[in-house]
Amino acid sequence: MTEPTPDREQLTDLLAQQWEAIGTLVADLDEKAWRASSPLPGWTLFDVVAHVVGTESWLLGETPPPHDPLRPKTDVRTLPHVRNEIAVLNEIWVDRLRPLSGKRLLALFDEVTDRRLAALAAMDTKAWETPTVSPVGQVPYGRFMRVRLFDCWMHELDLADGIGRSVTEGGPRAETAFAELTAGLGRAVVKGAKAPDGSRITLDLTGPVTRRIHLAVVDGRGAVLDEPDGEPSAVLGLDSGLFARLRGGRTTADAHRDEITVSGDTALGERLARNLAFTI
């Protein structure tokens, strides 16, 4: 069954809220704080925001600024955390924006996201539903924008963790982002956790995004079930914030052992906890 394309007005509004949340979070940073490390390998807090600026600029049809000849040139393909062509483009944008001050970057972020919101508001239904290349394959443009919301929501968490502040991790933006976090869990069960055929696993997310996610392995393929179809082989319990960070590769299960509960087949549950990551 084909997944419906997200509603344009609703998702555009969530993106507006998400970009506002990011801008508010970093608005009072001084230059030293901008250059503090984030949870992402090789990236500062400045780099996280520069990445968002770069992606949204690219979606407006723009190219990275030219390299400053007075700066050493970095071959981004040699960086250990760069593993594909999308990452190469991300790094080029980040590298080219690094000479800016944090204050100038924030002004550019506001300007670019305002233009993106105007572009989204001007789209008609045909354009919103037109298949386009995205990090999750060729999907309707509106589905791609759900990926953008997820990406920016995760980066809000990166910024908050890097600064050392708490942010609201529930609500409509988080609920929408979780559709991306849960979509590929079947692969994590089979490829990561090596769950045998016939396995049933329940993920019990305790909030602020509350979920009971039922997973099954049938004929060697992992799937997310709408409803459980039997007793689970293992039940994995954790809060949704930790789940998001594990799925995003921002931390490890071993660093949070006292925050994760496993019942039933503990070995299977622990393997899944250690192999939830699908992005970094």
From TrEMBL:
Domain Mycothiol-dependent maleylpyruvate isomerase metal-binding: 15-160
Gene3D superfamilies registered for this protein in UniProt: dinb family like domain
UniProtKB keywords: Isomerase
Domain SCP2: 198-274
SUPFAM superfamilies to which the protein is assigned, alphabetical: DinB/YfiT-like putative metalloenzymes (SSF109854)
Short name of one Pfam family: MDMPI_N
InterPro entries, sorted: DinB/YfiT-like (IPR034660), Maleyloyr_isom (IPR017517), MDMPI_metal-binding (IPR024344), SCP2_sterol-bd_dom (IPR003033)
UniProt-recorded Gene Ontology molecular function terms: isomerase activity
Name of the molecule in the record: Maleylpyruvate isomerase N-terminal domain-containing protein
Organism: Nocardia rhizosphaerae
